[in-house]
Amino acid sequence: MSDPNVLLVILDSVRARNVSAYGHHNETTPFLESFAEAATLYEQARSPGARSVTSHTSIFSGLHVEEHNVTAAKYRLDPSLSIFDRLREDGYATGVFSENNWITDVDVGLSEGFDHVVGARSAMYPDALNPESFVSNHGRGAYADFLTAALGHDRPLQSLANGVSTKLTTDYPGLVPEFMKASTPARTYVDEFLDWQADRDGPWAACMNLMDAHIPYDPAPEHDLWGGDRLRELQNSFEDQKWDFASGRRPWWQKEAVEALYDGTIREMDAALQRLVRALRERGELEDTLLVVTSDHGEGFGEPSDVRPAVRVAEHGVAIHDVLLHVPLLVRFPGQTDGERVAAPASLTEFPRVVEGVREGTADRDAFCPDGPVISSAVGLDEPLQDRASQYVDDLSPWLATSRAVFEERPGEDAAVVKYCTNREAEATIGVRDAQSSFALDEAAAARVDAAFADVDDAGVRSEGDGVEDVGDTTYQRLEDLGYV
Asked: Is 403:343 a contact under the CB 8 Å cutoff?
């Protein structure tokens, strides 16, 4: 067969526990349940990390978090290590479609592998002068220069309108209607991808990162089946989705309550996936495509930490809890017609090797299951996030150390998988039956973790990047709203 197409769909912040294809009580993914009838569902897939930047870098490069060490905006991966860059070098058309700034705007080495980049809708008029693009050449705050450039543009009035809307969004958010602040829904990026794909006449490789399930949770009314207006009002009153709760300023039941809105966002993305797969099938593209549907990490709604029970998990970032690491993974290999389920631990870090295996005709249903243990790392807060957190919490020590987890199969016992995890001197061993149930085991963990990480060394592929100092005001504001800075 000729080179297969590659489509990686990352449902940002979606944990396996809230996916009905993994047993969740709310029917959040009716399409994925039917899709699994002709795909491979990995029951015990784990994300390499608990933050977007660490996980995406591992997924794209095939390196563990503590091998690439791209843990913050100030670091940059050697772009040639991205599987998408290698595919482009081999003649693939490549594209990325997402509002996730880590793979479209912030220079951490992930966007270079794509010829076509569709990022956040930061400009009202895409054909006019975009303030975000202008900033990359002139720096933030160059208002007079932007005004001169806008007046000299082919579309001066629309360029000025872009500038005004950007200024309002960043400096006067209270004057901006809520609909202008909302994230672009999954269906928009699906449409953008399908328009791009329709013009390809050779092999293509693309990544879609759909942000609907990232904070704030804002499902469209037709998918908001379990939330409602009162929960939306409650969520709008939060100052910070993580630190309001970690600091004790708000009761945990409020964080738990908005999980109902989160479920609606997953249902919304499931509907977008249905449109995507239907279109690819109608175009005759699906049979020749490796389609991977997964997540970069999960989300916390107040679950007690595995290794520090006095600490509870809100949102995502630094914890090693399975609500952040246990992610959905459904894969339709080219030509696959029968559904399969894999119970062994699987790792998203295997993605580049799976792509190469499919191209060589050697990949099988266990392709995402490494020969050794599956490992994950959750790094501590970087300096910008420490500054943010210190506004709410005096003692940041629970969130500063790197946490590690090792997952091993244990067939024939109550636990399908055993998780060994550590955080500084603390350790815990957890038995995991499935995405919905787990329990503590009276077993030592530190020695298992140390042994699994013994050969995980810095690969020397990280350099100093530009950080977020040179991104535009709107992009910076979005990073701040998403809790990244």
From this structure: no
For residue 186, the SS3 value is helix
Number of Cβ within a 10 Å radius of residue 302: 17
Q: Identify whether the C-beta of residue 113 lies closer than 8 Å to the C-beta of residue 84.
A: yes
Q: Name the H helices within 70-130.
A: 83-89
User: 144 or 363: whose pLDDT is higher?
Assistant: 363
Contact 77, 107 (CB under 8 A): no
Read off the pLDDT of each residue in 101-112 and give the average, rounded to a whole number. 85
Whether residue 216 has a cis bond before it, omega within 30° of 0: yes
pLDDT beyond 50 at 180: no
Quick one: CA torsion of 245, 246, 249, 253, rounded to 10 degrees? Answer: 30
Q: What is the spatial distance between Cα 73 and Cα 68, in angstroms, rounded to a whole number? A: 13
What one-letter code names the amino acid at 320? Answer: I
Cα–Cα distance for residue pair 112/60, rounded to 1 Å = 12
C-beta separation of 32 from 330 below 8 A: yes
Please compute the mean of the pLDDT values over residues 472-480 and round it to a whole number.
55
* Bridge partners of residue 346, in order along the sequence: 45
CA 33 → CA 9, 49, 269, 305, distances in Å? 16, 26, 13, 30
- 314: how many CB neighbours lie within 10 A of its CB? 23
Q: Which of 5, 63, 157 is nearest to 348 (CA)?
A: 63
The whole model's pTM is what?
Answer: 0.88
Question: Residue 404: what are its φ and ψ, rounded to 5°?
Answer: -125, 150
Please list the residues that pair with 97 across neighbouring strands.
Answer: 118, 208
pLDDT at 440 over 50: yes
Identify which of 274, 294, 290 has the alpha carbon closest to the alpha carbon of residue 47: 294
**First-to-last CA distance in the chain?**
46
Distances (CA, A) of 122 to 21, 99, 189: 34, 10, 14
Say how many CA atoms lie within 13 Å of 338 toward its Cβ: 3
Give the C-alpha separation, 21 to 43, whole Å: 10
Q: Is 213 helix (H, G, I), strand (E, B) or coil?
A: coil
Query: Do the Cβ atoms of 390 and 384 come closer than 8 Å?
Result: no
- Rounded to whole angstroms, the Cα distance separating 405 from 65 reads 12
Cα–Cα dist 64/453, whole Å: 10
